[in-house]
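Q: Could you fold this chain for me?
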Amino acid sequence: MEDLHMPVYNRKKLQWKLKTARIVDKEWLPLNVVTTNSNVLVLNTTKNQTFTVHIVSPEDYDGSSHQILVSDPLAVALLGYSRGEDVECELPSGINRLKVLSVCQLSTGEVLV
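A: Sure. Below is the predicted structure, expressed as structure tokens.
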């Protein structure tokens, strides 16, 4: 994992996530959990800014507005969290506190707010 190009803070969080992760069949995963192909409304409480990201796999990435790759540090930070949860992520501006406001699973079209 040392060759990943991400801040040490995010790398340690990723290592913890991988260590504690459980494999769940997608049909049993709650719809309000951030996964690949989720459209996520996020509040950066550190900067008081709201933004939307669409987390995609490399084969689905087309450069559309709001798309980020599943390997992006922000996507890695959000994966597995659900609506209402707080997440910390190191961005270029430093460690930011984020809140997941809503999650839309684009494969189902369902939005949970």
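A (continued): Residues 109-113 have pLDDT under 50 and may be disordered.
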